[in-house]
Amino acid sequence: MPQLLTVQVLDAVRLITLQRPEALNALNTQLLAELAAQLGEADADVQTRAVVITGNARAFAAGADINEMAERDLVGILNDPRAASWQRIGAFGKPLIAAVNGYALGGGCELAMHADILLAGEGALFGQPEINLGIMPGAGGTQRLLRAVGKSLAMQMVLTGEPISARQAQQAGLVSEVTPPELTVERALAIAQQIAAKAPLAVRLAKEALLKAQDMDLASGLRLERHAFTLLAGTQDRAEGIQAFQQKRRPRFTGA
Question: What is this structure's pTM?
Answer without folding.
Answer: 0.92
